[in-house]
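Researcher: Next entry in the queue.
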Amino acid sequence: MSAASDSGDRGKYNGKPVVLASTITCPNCGHRKEERMPTDACVHFYECEQCKSLLKPKAGDCCVFCSYGTVKCPPVQSGGACC
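Model: Structure for this entry, 83 residues:
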């Protein structure tokens, strides 16, 4: 179980329970930071606060949380299509 899912930062998306916190790990420098995921939009770009790299989703993923996070975005968690 990830730290994000232990944090108690939970909510609902389309009436289904989801975890709203995900730890993003920068693939360039390894910096990790827990972030709260929005339920009303996908995050397509994320700047690493340590190395300043601009992260974009990997091919086939809808957002940076699906690519680099410990928890997928709320739409994917709820079993639906991504944003």
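Model: Residues 53 and 68 are 13 Å apart (CA to CA).
Researcher: Noted, moving on.
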